[in-house]
Design a protein that fits this description.
Length: about 525
């Protein structure tokens, strides 16, 4: 009776009466039970679906690290700080040194570390793997990023790459040499000035200013003055490209899972600093169109706007649109900045840690100056120990941790029963290959001699790949090497580089596929000449 009263009081105005009581007493618990049962069934079905999806590699006899239902390995692949450790685990423990299957949620991807297999994928059968991963960037705000060469696909990529490649012919690089030397001299003065007033010099910061000023000057004739201005605006803006926020990672996860939602929400995926560089390039283009030609990268793109002629000999304009030109220009400024600066920073740290190697390199530089009268293009190109030191630095610290290609035509891996389907991503773990004791005895040791001409025959083909592999490798490799060599040679001739107390070890940051020094590279500089 008491129970009944309470129920009636609880629903006084609804007038639910006896029927409701019946429902509450007998049917509701059953309904709840049925709902749980249905939910459980859906979950089991979804789990079974996930399990079946994650059988993809096992069915082809390809090893995989343990998978987590539904997410596969995405929690490790998308976590910037875990990605590298996971790559190493897959490389050494799950067959990645040959090939290993991974899952980004339910999407199978392949990790290929075997040099012979890489030769097939990246070089010989490149027409099956011409693209990299693409992102649908529907927002107008991302148009500059979406049109960069790095994201271009198929024929469009081929055409654009052919237009951009002549930027770095031997003749053009030689022509840029005096400009690079000028910027390197500014770098040396700036560093020595800092050495007089500060307890140590942050070489990552300073090399970053040097590489930014150099690429801006060589490719566009823009003077950034990052080594002269107190508060260099260019440098501040370019730095923001390399600060990866949680928001950005979440946006990319959203993009890979729900591209339509990103489109509906009109989310911006590119870094806001892109707008700053877009404006700089627009201004420079306006100056060029009024007649100032330099024969540099920007001119190449602008001239490609008016290339003519088809098979029948009819004149046709094949213009590069303005957005395409701006996109490649912004890409060059950003790509030309961090990679070379990190290489130089790591090299100077390694030389500070190994004074005997530093001394041998300085000796080679002094002999070059004695022979040629100054640092010359020919002298730099012929300096074998300098080349070996840069190559060994790039082996230990390759700025790009992974290479990546997207399959565009079904591909059967030679000699194996494994098929790669169109759309599948193939990656290669550069960092792990570079430190694999199978290819590099005592891999953790900085030993430039490995790259001297007499020892080069001992290096297995495609086990030293800091600039990538095949027709889609780094477009600016020869320029980057020349720039790094000039910067390092000038620094060594001007100053002894030493470890700073409390900064004897270097911390590296493995972030979104890029390897960079963490928290700068702080060193002591001891000038070799009276100032
Ligand atoms: C030490 C310096 C550098 C290193 C280690 C480096 C490394 C790389 C790597 C690993 C790739 C991908 C290659 C592949 O997928 O096979 C790449 C691509 C690229 N790099 Fe570099 N890079 C450096 C300097 C530069 C500079 C100075 C520029 C521009 C001025 C530049 C522009 C590019 C561009 C545009 C691509 C995309 C090529 C394409 O998709 O066709 N890089 N770089």
């Amino acid at each position: 009776m008491e129970k009944k009263l309470i129920r009636e009081n609880a629903f006084p105005s609804l007038g639910l009466g006896v029927g409701f009581e019946l429902w509450m007493t007998f049917l509701a618990p059953r309904m709840i039970g049925v709902t749980w049962l249905l939910l459980g069934a859906v979950l089991v079905l979804f789990w079974a679906y996930s399990w079946w999806k994650h059988r993809y590699w096992a069915n082809q006899g390809v090893p995989t690290p343990p998978v987590v239902p539904f997410i596969g390995h995405a929690h490790k692949l998308f976590a910037p700080d875990r990605m590298c450790d996971f790559g190493r685990e897959a490389y050494y423990n799950y067959g990645g040194s040959k090939l290993c299957g991974l899952y980004s949620f339910h999407e199978p991807t392949l990790l290929v570390g075997d040099p012979e297999l890489m030769r097939h994928i990246y070089v010989k059968d490149f027409d099956h793997f011409i693209d990299r991963r693409t992102f649908d960037m529907p927002s107008e705000k991302d148009i500059v990023t979406a049109n960069m060469l790095t994201l271009k696909t198929g024929e469009e990529w081929k055409k654009l790459r052919a237009i951009m490649s002549p930027t770095f012919t031997s003749g053009k690089i030689k022509g840029m040499f005096p400009l690079v030397c000028e910027k390197a001299d500014q770098l040396v003065s700036f560093c020595l000035k800092e050495a007089r007033t500060k307890p140590f010099v942050d070489m990552k910061y300073n090399f970053g200013r040097f590489t930014l000023d150099t690429i801006a000057s060589c490719a566009f004739g823009i003077e950034c003055n990052s080594l002269v201005d107190e508060k260099p605006e260019f440098a501040k803006q370019v730095d923001s490209f390399f600060k990866i926020s949680t928001g950005m990672i979440l946006k990319f996860i959203l993009l890979s899972l729900f591209p339509k939602l990103v489109e509906v929400l009109n989310l911006r995926l590119s870094v806001p600093a892109t707008d700053f560089f877009e404006e700089v390039v627009r201004e420079t283009m306006r100056a060029r169109q009024s007649g100032n030609k330099r024969g540099d990268f920007l001119d190449l793109l602008l001239e490609a706007e008016v290339s003519t002629g088809d098979a029948e000999g009819t004149k046709s304009k094949e213009a590069l649109d303005e957005v395409t030109i701006i996109s490649q220009s912004v890409l060059f400024l950003v790509a030309g900045y961090d990679t070379t600066a990190s290489t130089l920073a790591f090299a100077s740290f390694l030389l500070a840690k190994h004074p005997e190697i530093q001394q041998r390199l300085r000796q080679e530089m002094s002999e070059m100056v004695e022979e040629h009268g100054d640092i010359t293009y020919q002298g730099i190109m012929e300096a074998k120990y300098l080349d070996a030191c840069i190559m060994e630095t790039l082996r230990l610290y390759p700025p790009g941790l992974f290479l990546e290609r997207k399959c565009v035509k079904e591909y059967k891996i030679p000699g194996m029963d494994v098929t790669i389907k169109p759309g599948m991503i193939v990656t290669s773990p550069v960092y792990d290959i570079h430190r694999d004791p199978k290819y590099w005895p005592e891999p953790e040791v900085f030993r430039p001699e490995r790259f001297l001409p007499e020892n080069k025959a001992n290096i297995t083909h495609l086990t030293h790949i800091p600039f990538g592999v095949g027709p889609r490798n780094c477009i600016a490799m020869r320029f980057a090497l020349m720039e790094a060599k000039v910067g390092l040679a000038k620094m060594l001739l001007a100053s002894d580089i030493k470890l700073a107390p409390g900064h004897e070890e270097i911390k590296a940051e493995f972030s979104m596929g890029l390897l960079r020094p963490k928290d700068g590279v702080n060193l002591l500089l001891d000038p070799l000449k009276e100032e």
